[in-house]
Amino acid sequence: MSDMRQLYQEVILDHNRKPRNFGSIPGANHHAEGHNPLCGDHIKLTLNMQDDRIDAIAFEGEGCAICKASASMMTGAVKGKSAQDAEVMVDEFRGMATGTLDLDKGGNHLGKLKVFAGVKDLPSRVKCAILPWHTLHAALNSESSISTEGAADPLGDNA
Amino acid sequence: MKIERMNVESFNVEGVRGDFPILDLQVSGKPLVYLDNAASSQMPQPVIDRIVCYQTREHSNIHRAVHYLSELATREYEAARVKVQHFLYAKESREIIFTRGTTEAINLVMHGYGRAFIGKGDEIILSALEHHANIVPWQMLANEKGAVLRVIPMNDAGELLIDEFESLFNAKTKFLALTHVSNALGTVNPVKGMIEFAHKHGVPVLLDGAQSAPHQVVDVQDLDCDFYAFSGHKMCGPTGIGVLYGKAKLLEKMQPYQGGGDMILSVTFEKTTYNVIPSKFEAGTPPIMAAIALGAAIDYLNGIGLANIQAYEKTLLDYATERISALQDVRIIGKAKHKAAVISFEIDGVHPHDVGTILNDEGIAIRTGHHCAQPVMQFYGVPATARASFAFYNTRQEIDKLVDGILKVQEMFS
Question: pTM of the full predicted structure?
């Protein structure tokens, strides 16, 4: 069970049970939807940008524990950040989940989000963890919807 | 129909398991418990050996050259067709067309029959239980022709409503495309009566047999279906091979699906004369090795007996249903009176994908997702389910391991 405990850590299970920033921001000026048709994960993200900072952010939708916890922790992590800093985190999170970012080297901004590092060993679950981050990227760039079917990392080079 | 008798207690499952080398595998450091048979079954040694024998001693292209290997490969390929004919109790071997799988078989009927005989305003009846493979081709046809799809509804148990089915028929009804056994829920549809009713209205019927051919005796003449489609890889054969059975008189009036070599009698730049059935529908070099291996898989299944397989799998279904039903906060989705050995379930508060990942860590392979049957998921208001599907090489001990695994999932998420 140790490998599974590595992935399903208490912090992930807790965010799955009690997702933070769950709901939607009325009158949000950025929004996007993310789908993972393969497993039915569906994330709706609303955010308010003020002076290029994420002033408010919320998500709603259906998903597995990995997806929901990733969305919940993401909203907490990027609130108050500039669009540019949030995009850096999108890149770093993607790098961690797909195994291209070396966490031991340090210098990243992932902090508590490193609990998701274990998904890189579960190819079928990588996209569950990444979906909220792709949706954030889409919202920041005002793409209205993104789908992760068929690609573990649709923003990657091979998408 | 061949009648087989057996005493379920005497079913030698350990002996059967010895035929499947993959069942000795360790996954996540534990013995593999393979419960994803509705997606694809495993291959026994005699079928593996047949593939090796063909590739080492018999391979060539078929229906072409006069040399030794070509004649040998042709003979074995056509012998496989006859095995399929007998397996389905079809009248003639020319009614058996080799395809890539069930999906291609259904697409063949859509193109060859549907595009020729279904037109604007005509109606095609499907059921609420269909796999996407028996929805999307008909939707494509309906869009192209301006035809209309009508859907047989079901009840909460996952059984089709036969009264509603009958009321769907009218003068515009031109086709019934129906699954024999639901892949998502395991429901066995009362197809014989439904086919009889459709025929009273002059409507031909295609049965999607992907989930019935591996698990029960299928007699296409007794059922009187017009088309029956199934896949090799769900019945101990390889991927890349499937079968379309069609009544000869229908196949003969259908248009070819693909053009190419082997499906012609003569070709000039002005005109092509098509070959007779079944060649008319087998353009190009077919999957020769896979067809021969399917024949070997049929031999293997016949050696055990489809009726024996069905009776044994019923005991597995009953045991698994009893054990899973007894679990707290677990809901079985699909409780039809007549079911194949498939159990779709939900654990309160846990997404099926998390269930699948944690069970995988116990060496248990199940399917999680929408099972290519999104309308079924929508009916139950769930995005996905976890599904355990059994084969004759599964055991009660494996069901116990599944139940222990579900308890571990619940403990982790508690």
Answer: 0.92
Q: Is the pLDDT of residue B177 over 80?
A: yes
CA distance A2 to chain B (A): 9
Is residue B282 a contact partner of residue B257, using CB atoms and an 8 Å limit? no
Q: How many domains does chain A have?
A: 1
pLDDT in tens, B326-355: 999 999 999 999 999 999 999 999 999 999
Closest CB to B413 among A13, A62, A125: A13
Residue A38 falls inside a structural domain: yes
Q: Do B353 and A42 touch (CB under 8 A)?
A: no
pLDDT of residue A146: 62
Q: Which residues of B331-351 are buried (b: 16+ CB within 10 A; e: fewer)?
A: bbbbbbeebbbbbbbbbeebb
CB B287 within 8 A of CB B130: no
- One of B53, B225, B236, B372 is an active-site residue; which one? B372
Q: In this predicted model, what pLDDT tens digit does every residue of A104-136 receive, in sequence order?
A: 888 889 999 999 999 998 888 999 999 999 999
Q: What share of chain B is helix, strand, coil (3-state, %, to 5)?
A: 45, 20, 40
Q: How confident is the model at residue B64 (pLDDT cuts 50, 70, 90)?
A: confident
Domain region containing A83:
2-147
B121, B100, B130, B372: which is closest to B239 by C-alpha? Answer: B100
Q: State the average pLDDT over residues B224-235.
A: 98
Domain B48-303 CATH assignment equals 3.40.640.10: yes
CATH number, position A11 = 3.90.1010.10
ipTM of the complex: 0.84
Catalytic status, residue B225: no
Select from A116, A122, A153, A159 the least CA-distant residue to A36.
A153
Interface of A with B in 128-157 (CB under 8 A): 128
